[in-house]
Amino acid sequence: MNGAMKMNDATMRFLLYACLWAISMPGYTQSAIRINQLGYKPGSIKYAAIAEPGTVVDFAVVRAGTSEKVLSGTLSVPVTSSFSGITTRLADFSALDRTGIYELVYNHQRSFRFTIAGNVFSELSKAAIKSYYYQRVSEPLRPAHAGKWSRAAGHPDDSVLVHASAASAARPEGTVIASPGGWYDAGDYNKYIVNSGITMGTLLSAYEDFSGYYDTVYLNIPESGNGIPDLLDEVLHNLRWMFTMQDPHDGGVYHKCTHAKFDGKVMPGITRAPRYVVQKTTAAALNFAAVMAQAARVYAGFGKELPGLADSCLKAATAAWNWSLQHPAVLYNQEEMNKQYAPPIVTGAYGDRNVQDEWFWAAVELSVTTADPGYLEAEQVDLNMNMSVPSWNAVAMMGVYTAIRNATVFERSLLHIQTLTNTLLTIADGWLSGGNKAFSTVMGQSRRDFAWGSNSVAMNQSVLLLKAFLHTKDRKYLNGASSNLDYVLGRNATGYSFVTGFGSQTPMHIHHRPSEADGIVAPIPGFLAGGPNPGQQDKCKYPFNDPERSYVDDYCSYASNEVAINWNAPLVYVVGAIDFLK
Ligand code: G3I
Ligand code: 9MR
What we know:
single chain; alpha+beta; 5-stranded mixed β-sheet; globular; disordered N terminus; binds ligand G3I; binds ligand 9MR
């Protein structure tokens, strides 16, 4: 009798919990409805993609948790995506502009909840920047700033060894130098100058393009309230580390500060293996020169708070540029290097094989900061190279952005700003007329979009589109940029909102050592996961192999589920811009 009672109790409790779960979490099972899981601003274009075939053509939007219809509509004709074979139909609910929390209903399925509000992206904007604070290397993250993700300081990097590949007369192999601070690059615990290049350039551009916005963005970091916008305080943290990577004797810049091998799945700073600065390269020197030149411009506005900083930046940039003129093509080839020097270094290579674009970018930044376009006359600078969506190894477009923003500097120079503008607009127009029709995104037009870190391809496309918008004020570019934000927030073939902590189905097991080792269930918020990558270089088990769905939310998957500073930077730019722009 008692036993039966207990059974009944347990069953009843189970049923009760099941019911409570079902009531409290409507739509928390993945439906066929792919939607931006965070939401939309009033006045924006709003689509969902129904990723299943069927004869039902009606859909509705209801107030969340109710059946109160606020909009009904008809799905578009089916389209099959070239990169997954998924057939979708689109639900257009752009007409719904009233602030609120909603669900889209289709054939008895409910979407995840989403919000329509003017400030729907504000928290995401802050979190995307705050992710850099969580990457800080040599200082403890205190509970007041880091909450439940507080942790001890990571690698001190106060005594780093000069690796044999980096030895010079003034600093022979084994010389101890200090290279503290900065940000961890990604899910690993190393620091790479090349990848800091595009990252810092993009974050500084965000400030240059939207200073009025960032002057008010409060991040609750240790420096908050010091008179410098929090974004620039955070960027300064990595800039100070970058200074330490320049050899004061010759202006050359070390490629990276790294362990010889990747750390295991531990919290940062637990292991005590030696750290090295490795080989000076032209890619490092030119990325460094570009960033320092841009930083000199930006921080010149804070001469009172940061006396001398802008001058130091420009001096460092010039020294790195001059070193590059003497060493115009020292490329980083880790395999070759390891044949010559010990210990072998097997961490991230960022081995760019072509530095033509770095030459261009550095020349443009130095020209603008010094108001002297003479840098473009260096023999190595090619003004007619191919321009493409930026990535860590393709930064020419970064120079284009800066040149267009500062056109007057180039009035009597070899650089034709009108030609650059036409190039940028031609690329943007091509994306708008192509795009991925199944999800109505610019992202996913080409198989090449699904590279390692594909979500950053989407965000870098959006940055370019936003630059086109700033230049022309034509809203079609803003809409194109938003379509890719919708993509990373859930309107994609995987159904994931790829930013940790933002959306209903988000990555829980990013390849990020602190998030995995800290014993806290939720990953650190505000990180953009790498995204679908059919290369599957990590050899993990993936649910699908097609480009659009080659993603797995597993720590194992560094090729689809890692995070990286160069991937979050365009997310910062895009979310900030869309949050800010009317
Ligand atoms: O350049 C070739 C191109 O010619 C070819 O058509 C294409 C086809 O696959 O591949 C291109 O090379 C790719 C290269 O990135 C440049 O885009 C490689 O396949 C691809 O494997 C390589 O991925 C890089 C990865 O490191 C492995 O080296 C990612 O871009 C880069 O973001 C990633 O960075 C790592 C760091 O090494 C270590 N820290 C974490 C970070 C993020 O995962
Ligand atoms: O964790 C590393 C990640 O940051 C890199 O992007 C990736 C590719 O270089 O490598 C990861 O480290 C893996 C290593 O390459 C092979 N052994 C397993 C490591 C991941 O746990």
